[in-house]
Structures
1.
Amino acid sequence: MRTKRLLPGGAAARTALEDQRVGATGNQYRRPDSAEVRQAKKDWRVRISLPPNSKFAFRTGQPADGAPVEDIGDGLMSFLRDKGLGTDGVVFPYTPQITIAHNARYSEQALTHSNYKNFFYDGSDVSNIQITGIFTCQNSDEARYLMACIQFLRACTKMNFGLEDPAAGTPPTLVRLSGYGEHYIPGSLNCVVTQVSHSMPDDVDYIKYDLGVSYGWMPIQSTLTVSLQPVVSRTRQAAKMLLNDFVKGSYLGKGVYGTSTDDKDGGIF
């Protein structure tokens, strides 16, 4: 299992040159690093994070609290911050399988006494992005990390609710998808989480973790599947989307983890 389907840089042993080429060290969950260091290493792991100005989940906290966002709280979400395993969100530890479909919709008209149908263009869209990846837990830190990933993604499917929530009714948060460098997933792509599924196999061992006042068990190997729907605002489409520029690749390589261009609106797919 350690010889294939691995996270970029996931081989058990590498030379310094190989480490530099893939921007990685070690064969487990790597610890990077600030956004600047990730950029310097050209980190191309698949990551589900949050927009830069988000105050949700592992970025909970307001400036009025008098502490940096990443220093507030030691609960489950702290394992997704830079001070946890250093991933700033959910990072798939082994290279996941990703399916992306771009669609053009056409209406059809069957004409009388004709050998062929006529087709009329309606519009285009990008279907749900399906991500399926393997997680392994060889110690309690990795087990806590997996549980934090699951809990974060669960929360991304929920709206604000409850009588004591002043933001009740607010839709689920946007997330940012990045990976494979600067082109395949342009920049950092705005998405909403539409489905999360995780398997608890019956044919593997489990490892215990604790959070101080509570504890749990995670499988040493399991599969996490996430469906993401890309979102591009109508204003952004009207202001920045030109087909000729799209064809030339002008929108590639822009985003939080892509280049020095910090595009806070996310990439255009």
2.
Amino acid sequence: MTPHPDRIAQLTALALTLGVAELPAWLRRNGHPIGIEVLALEAAFKVKKGQSGPTVDAATVGRDGDPMPLVYRYVDAARLLDISESTVKRLVAGGDLRAINLAGARCIPHDELVDYVARRLDAA
């Protein structure tokens, strides 16, 4: 499913106003879904190693004190990427996504999802 251009424009304006790191917390607080567009924005604002400029820190806490998720279970990662959970499992098994064990659950770190989307954007 391709994100609607109007939604991308709105999210970009919000990210520039609030800061990319605070966008997910603001969306959750206001009842809006967090989808692949947010990950794509984070990837677009993430600066590659050796460059200067803003970076996205997954551990950043928003102004309201609401922390951004550091990891996502497979089902949540699948929802964010708008793919199936079995596709997430295949990506992990194939080495395209890295997962960790956390409290008995397999999870994908937030930065890994952002990096995956950035790699896909670079390949496009």
